[in-house]
Amino acid sequence: MKFLKLKFEHARLIVEKPQSNYLGTNRFFHPINNKHIYNSVCVLFDRTPKPQLRDTNNDYMPLYNDILSVVNEGYIKIENVCEGETNSIVKRPWNSNLKEAIQYTWKDSQYVTGTLYPIFIHHLSNVLKVPEEALKKKAFDDVMLEIQSMGIKNTKGEITYDNDDINNLILWCRTNTSAPLSNYIENKQNNSSRPRGFGKRVHRGSAPSNKYNGLIYIPLNDYLFNELITHTKGFSTILDGGLVTILGYEEIMEYTVNGFTKISDLNSTRKFYEVTSGVKWNNTIYKDLDENNMEKSMNAIIKKCGVSIKENQKEYDNMMKKVPKLKEVKDVAYKLNYFIENSINKQYK
User: Fold this and answer.
1) With contact defined as beta carbons under 8 Å apart, do 247 and 8 qualify?
2) Which alpha helices (DSSP H) does 30-100 contain, by range?
3) d(CA 272, CA 279)
4) Neighbour count for residue 235 (Cβ, 10 Å)
5) CA-CA distance, 152 to 211, in Å (whole number)?
6) Whole-Å CA distances, 115 to 110, 137, 139, 219
7) CB-based burial of residue 339 (10 Å sphere; 0-12 exposed, 13-18 middle, 19+ buried)?
8) How far apart are CA 147 and CA 249, in angstroms?
9) Which range has the top average pLDDT, 15-24, 151-160, 311-320?
10) Degrees to nearest 5, angle at CA 298 with 302 and 183
C-alpha cells in the first residue's frame, strides 16, 4: 500500500494554563496525537473534522471512521524545534493576570448597551432613586454592589429580588443588551471570573510555547487517494499556526519509518475526562471548593478525581503549606489543579 507523505512546520503549542477552566492549553498527554492528525487529514479531504473537546450533532458532523482508521495506521516523527519561546497573545479579561481586568467600568457597560446606554442609566436611576448625574459619579462596581445588597442570595450565591424595578432591569438587559450583564446583577458568575462575556475588553499578554516540525505517513488505498486529489487544496493546519502540506504519495520500506512512532501508539486520552470517572473538572473546581472548610473540600475533590493523597504525600504537603497564604479561591483552585494533574500524569508515564 502507498503512503501519503505529509510535512508539518511551526506547529505551536502554548503551554500556559488558562485560569478560566484550569485544564491547560494542551488537554492531551502528547503534544500531537491521532485526534490532531485526524482533524488535519479531514481538512485535506475537504471534510469537516469533528471537534474533540465538545459535543456535536453526529447527523451533520459525523466522525469519519475511514479517515480515523488510516490515521491510526500511520506514522509520525515529531521534532521539538523551539522550547519555551515567548509569544504575544490576546487574553480575555477573565483570563488575564492583570488585577484591574477584574473590574467593570461605565465604559464597559456603555460598550454592551450601545445606543441603549441612556435607557440603561435611566433604569439604574429608577432602581436606586438617585439622579442620573449623581449615579455616574459612583464607580460602576459600587452601583452593582448596591443593587445586589437589595436581593437575597441562595446557596449557590445567586441573587433573587422582590423589587419589581430590579427585575424589570434584569429582564430589559437580557432582552435588549446581553445576558452577561443581567447575570452580573443576579451574581450568576463567580466573583473571580466576573468579566466573562462582558464587553470585548482584551489585554495583551505573553505565554511560553513549544514549536514542532515533523513528518507524517498515512496509508491510503486507491479509492481514498482519488477522493483526496479530487477535493484537496493541498494543505491544512495543525495545532496553533502549524501548516501541513503534501509532499508526495509513495511506497515506503520498513526502514523508512525507523525513528517514527505509530500514531495509534500515542496516548490520546484527554486529561481530566476519561481518567476522572466522568468528573466535569471545570465545574468541580469551583462548585465543590468551600471557602469556609477549605482543606476538607479539597480532599473531597482529590478523592472524587481518583487521586491518592498517600501516594503523593510530599506534593500534597507542599501544596497545603501554600494554601493559607493564598487570598482568593481561584488561586487555591489553580494549586489544586496542578497537584491533581501531576498525580494523574504519573499514572500514564
Assistant:
1) no
2) 34-44, 65-72
3) 7
4) 15
5) 51
6) 8, 21, 21, 57
7) buried
8) 67
9) 311-320
10) 110
pLDDT, tens digit (0-9, with 9 covering 90-100), for 200-217 = 445 566 777 889 999 999
Grid cell in block for residue 86: 515567548
Which amino acid belongs to residue 139?
A: A
Q: Where are the alpha helices (DSSP H) in the chain?
A: 34-44, 65-72, 106-113, 117-128, 132-136, 140-148, 164-176, 179-185, 222-231, 281-287, 294-304, 313-322, 329-347
Task: Please state, for a pLDDT cut of 90, what percent of the chain lies above it.
Answer: 22
**CA atoms of 254 and 68, how far apart (whole Å):** 22
Residues whose CB falls within 8 Å of the CB of residue 70, separated by 6 or more in sequence, listed in order = 41, 218, 219, 220, 224
Give the C-alpha distances (Å, rounded to integers) separating 28 from 57, 243, 261, 272, 343: 23, 20, 17, 9, 15
Cell digits for 336? 489544586
**How would DSSP label each residue in 83-144?**
EEEEEEEEE-GGG-S-GGGG---HHHHHHHHGGGHHHHHHHHHHHHT--HHHHHTS-HHHHH
Question: Residue 27 — pLDDT band, cuts 50, 70, 90?
Answer: low
**Which residue is associated with the grid cell 429582564?**
171
207: β partners: 87
The C-alpha cell 489585554 sits at 203
Which residues lie across from 246 on neighbouring strands? Answer: 6
Say which residues have a Cβ less than 8 Å from residue 44's Cβ, sequence separation at least 6.
Answer: 228, 232, 233, 234, 235, 236, 244, 246
What are the grid coordinates assigned to 296, written together?
476538607
Other C-beta atoms within 10 Å of 144: how many?
A: 19
- Print burial letters for 297-314: b (CB count within 10 Å at least 16), e (below 16): bbeebbeebebebeebee
Element (H, E) at 206: strand 203-220
For residues 45 and 232, is the Cβ–Cβ distance under 8 A?
yes
Indicate the residue type of 182: S
* Measured torsion, CA atoms of residues 118, 123, 126, 127, in degrees rounded to the nearest 10: -140
